Amino acid sequence: MATMYSLFLGILFTAVCSNLDAVDHTISAQTSLHQGNGDNVIRVRIVEIAAAEIGVREATGNNDGERVEAYLAYTGLSKGHAWCAAFISWCYGQAGLTEPCNPWSPALFPNARTYCRSNACAHSKIMIKPADVFGIYSHSANRINHVGLVRGIAGKYLLTIEGNVENKVLSKRRHLATVYALANWITHD
Based on CB atoms within 10 Å of each CB, which residue in 29, 143, 162, 173 is the most buried? Predict the structure, then answer.
């Protein structure tokens, strides 16, 4: 199993490196991906699926394009809709999971799956695992209006893969203080 993780980590780190800023380049693949997920192959698979989509772009900047429309269709929507939650749902579906499967960002944070909300998330590093879902709260919308996938953690930052940011799928660093909610769709631990 360790050999599989090492090979996967090397491939994934190479795939996402071009999308990270200079600070992320100093973070080892071992640190960014293997944070206490043990032998949970499904978590690795979900991150692998999401990482393979990095670079997918909207065709015209209007929530459209072949891949974007596939993410939306997975959750029952057509082009033109916000697609960050649909992207997360699609990634889980490609890994063989039936949930989550919802295009509405707040729906990815039911009480049974959410392990932190608001200020508590800034102190939840120990619980955060690859393939968990994070949510960003919008005061103007008065709700979570953006979600993404946790790729790993580096200090006080989440390393993420998320859709519908700058009209594409990309990898980002997000300070834990900006994260409003975290949900675990793999287990109930």
Answer: 162
Which residues neighbour 29 within 8 Å (Cβ) at sequence distance 6 or greater?
A: 9, 10, 12, 13
Q: What is the DSSP letter of 57?
A: B
Question: Which residues are paired to 29 by β-bridges?
Answer: none
Q: How far apart are CA 3 and CA 65, in angstroms?
A: 37
Q: Where are the beta strands (DSSP E) in 12-91?
A: none
What does the buried/exposed string (b/e) look like for 45-68 if buried means 16 or more CB atoms within 10 Å of the residue's CB? bbbbbbbbbbebebeeeebbbebb
Express each pLDDT in 36-91 by its tens digit. 444 489 999 999 999 999 999 999 999 999 999 999 999 999 999 999 999 999 99
Pair 32, 145: CB distance under 8 Å: no
Measure the CA–CA gap between 103 and 119, rounded to whole angstroms.
25
